Amino acid sequence: MLYAIYCIDKPNSMDLRMAHRPEHIAYLKSKEDQILVGGAQLAEDGEAMLGSVLIIDAADEKAAKAFADGDPFAKAGLFESVRITRWRKAFFNPAVGA
């Protein structure tokens, strides 16, 4: 089952995000067989990171929560909020993105 994980960073937490980013990237690479897509939520300037969005394949909501809780960003206390919802892929256009 697919789940979307929406994470919003705490205000003024860029230093915390950058300090734990290498661990976060390593964690995601270790789980890449579960990840459909993921990336940072950006401010309108396209630079400032505001949070993260991941769409993952997990057995159930409990497994999706365990995935989210295992993220080094979550363990470091970066996120103000985390929301996990079921997600259905209805359309994909590989020509858009990147």
Question: Would you kindly provide a written description of the structure presented here, covering whatever features stand out?
Answer:
Strand 2 (35-42) and strand 3 (49-57) form a beta hairpin. The mean pLDDT is 95. It contains three helices and four strands, in the order E-H-E-E-H-H-E. It is globular and about 35 Å long. The protein has a four-stranded antiparallel beta sheet with strand order 2-3-1-4, with helices on one face. By secondary structure, it is α+β, with helices and mostly antiparallel strands. The protein has helices at 14-30, 61-70, 72-75, and strands spanning 2-9, 35-42, 49-57, 79-86.
Question: How are the elements arranged and paired?
Answer:
Layout: E1 2-9, H1 14-30, E2 35-42, E3 49-57, H2 61-70, H3 72-75, E4 79-86
Antiparallel strand pairs: 1-3, 1-4, 2-3
Taking strands numbered 1, 2, ... along the chain, how are they ordered across the largest sheet?
Answer: 2-3-1-4
Shape designation: globular
Name the beta content range: 25-35%
Uncertain segments:
none
Indicate the mean pLDDT. Answer: 95
The helix count comes to 3
**Radius of gyration, in angstroms, nearest whole number:** 13 Å
Q: Write down how many β-strands occur, each being a DSSP E stretch of 2 or more residues.
A: 4
What structural category characterises the helix and strand content? Answer: alpha+beta
Q: Largest sheet, described in full?
A: 4 strands, antiparallel
User: How are helices and strands ordered from N to C?
Assistant: EHEEHHE
Gap from first CA to last CA: 25 Å
* Portion of residues within helices: 25-40%
